[in-house]
Design a protein that fits this description.
The chain is of the alpha+beta class. Among the domains are: 10-160, 2-Layer Sandwich (Beta-Lactamase), CATH 3.30.450; 335-499, Histidine kinase-like ATPase, C-terminal domain (Heat Shock Protein 90), CATH 3.30.565. It has 9 helices and 12 strands. A 5-stranded antiparallel sheet has the order 2-1-5-4-3. Helix 1 (10-65) runs antiparallel to helix 3 and helix 4 (217-296) packs across helix 9 (455-465). The protein is rod-shaped, with a radius of gyration of 60 Å. Mean pLDDT is 76; it is low at 491-504.
Length: 504
């Protein structure tokens, strides 16, 4: 697991930037000043050495050129110029370059090379055990005088001067960095911090942003931009809240309308069922009335009368079952959230078939059912009954007068993540120009007045409300096939007592 460090604050970054600027500005400057100082000091020392060398050579040449001056006297004059503050060594050569007189510190005389004729005034660099030196050559008569002088005796003074320059630059850089730090903090950092604090207050719920008036012009412009952006965001937020409220109200109205549409379609289905079973109810009532008239006849014996009574009871129970089924279907659900209920698929299919079989138009319809027992889905039994009833009624209506051997197949199976329920008929199928709009409201293939075009639309709303999906299998040939995909129940929940109509 990797962790990222937060970036350094603005003050630290300003301090580091100022330090970098000082290093880039003063370090090269220090080296340049040090080099110039050393070069200047070296040039000064060489010039001083040249002047001193000329003076010493002139004095030695004057003593040596006097008539009758012995060599010891010349060397004595040379030794007078040799010392810590004078020359290192003094050598006089004749016209052939041979040393005729010399004086100097031990070990230095042998290190002085004799100049070559012809002689002229010159200076050459030399190295001694004590450091750098300068040999000054001055012509004297036919020969020459060589004076070796120190040029490193002011090194410590130069180093001290360089250290002073370095200390001055360090102190000046630190002072400039402190001044720049406090100035930038006052002009930039503090106004930005106040602006950030104002933005945090807006984020915490404040309805306006108070930008700091102090600071540079750019920071003032930034504060104005942030203030304008805040006002725009707050206005957009208010407009969004209003739109959300309006959307919630619209959603509530749509939900209420959908519930009303579900109820209306259920009642319409009940009406179609009632029209279909009216004949079945009328026949038993006519039989009961006829048997009642026969019972009232005194010529009928007791055994016949008891037989008529049993028949009357049987017909009455037949009427009761049909009416009870219609009432059960039309009764509103106690739990409107269908996704919280569990439906037994086989029992719902049996309930639907019990509702439609009493109709006279269904006597010639063959119904094949392939639904395993124990297959359950997460949907209200009442809602699933309404969906399945709409599908089988539509299938029967589509095959009426169109197919010699009408047949409806109801199949169900469970896959890894869904319960599939298929309703297939042998009718003419759904026309291609209607197939992609078959679940839209008011789309129907029936004649005018024979259907509302809301049944499949309501079925889609019920199935999708339970987290499922309903579709038309356009690849099926020889009729129409509707596929309902539902969420499997698993072991959760309890089957609603209304899912089994045979337990009552």
């Amino acid at each position: 697991m990797t962790s990222t460090r937060p970036p350094a604050g603005l003050r630290v970054q300003i301090l580091l930037s100022l330090a970098g600027v000082m290093l880039l500005a003063f370090v090269p400057l220090f080296f340049a000043v040090a080099q110039v100082t050393r070069a200047t000091a070296s040039a000064y020392r060489e010039e001083a050495a040249r002047g001193l060398g000329r003076a010493v050579a002139a004095h030695v040449a004057e003593v040596s050129g006097a008539p009758g001056v012995p060599r010891e006297e010349v060397e004595r004059a040379m030794r007078g110029h040799v010392g810590p503050r004078g020359a290192i060594a003094v050598v006089e050569v004749d016209e052939t370059g041979t040393v005729i007189a010399a004086a100097g510190e031990p070990g230095e005389l042998t290190n002085i090379p004799a100049p070559r004729p012809p002689f002229g005034e010159a200076a050459r660099q030399a190295r001694t055990s004590a450091g750098r030196a300068l040999d000054v050559i001055v012509p004297a008569g036919r020969g020459a005088v060589v004076v070796r002088l120190r040029t490193d005796e002011d090194v410590d003074r130069t180093a001290s001067l360089v250290r002073g320059v370095a200390l001055y630059m360090i102190v000046f850089a630190l002072a400039l960095m402190v001044f720049g730090y406090f100035s930038l903090t006052r002009l930039i950092v503090r106004p930005i911090e106040r602006l950030a604090a104002a933005a945090d207050r807006v984020a915490g719920g404040a309805r306006s942003l108070e930008a700091p008036p102090a600071g540079a012009r750019e920071i003032g412009e930034l504060g104005s931009s942030v203030r304008a952006m805040t006002e725009r965001l707050l206005a957009d937020e208010q407009a969004l809240r209003e739109k959300v409220d309006e959307l919630e109200r619209t959603t509530r109205r749509l939900r209420e309308t959908r519930e009303q549409l579900h109820g209306s379609e259920r009642l319409a289905s009940v009406g179609r069922l009632a029209a279909g079973v009216a004949h079945e109810i009328g026949n038993p009532i006519a039989a009961i009335m006829g048997m009642h008239d026969l019972i009232a006849d005194d010529a009928v014996d007791d055994e016949t009368r008891e037989d008529f009574m049993r028949r009357m009871r049987s017909e009455t129970e037949r009427i009761h079952v049909v009416v009870r089924d219609l009432l059960d279907y039309a009764r509103p659900e106690s739990e409107p959230t269908s996704g919280h209920q569990i439906a037994e698929i086989a029992e719902v299919v049996a309930s639907v078939l019990d509702l439609v079989r009493p109709q006279k138009s269904w006597r010639d319809v063959q119904v094949d059912v392939d639904v395993p027992q124990g297959l359950r889905a997460r949907i209200s039994p009442q809602r699933l009954t309404q969906v399945l009833l709409n599908l089988v009624l539509n299938a029967a209506a589509a095959m009426e007068g169109e197919t010699a051997s009408p047949k409806i197949s109801i199949e169900a199976e469970q896959t890894d993540d869904a319960v599939l329920l298929r309703v297939t008929d042998t009718g003419p199928g759904v026309p291609a120009d209607v197939a992609d709009r078959v679940f839209e409201p008011f789309v129907t293939t029936k004649e005018v007045g024979a259907g509302t075009g809301l049944g499949l639309s309501v079925c889609r709303g019920i199935v999708e409300g339970a987290g499922g999906h309903i579709s038309l299998d356009t690849s099926h040939q020889g009729g129409a096939r509707f596929v309902v995909e539902l969420r499997p129940a698993g072991d959760e929940g309890e089957i609603s007592p209304r899912s089994s109509r045979r337990d009552r």
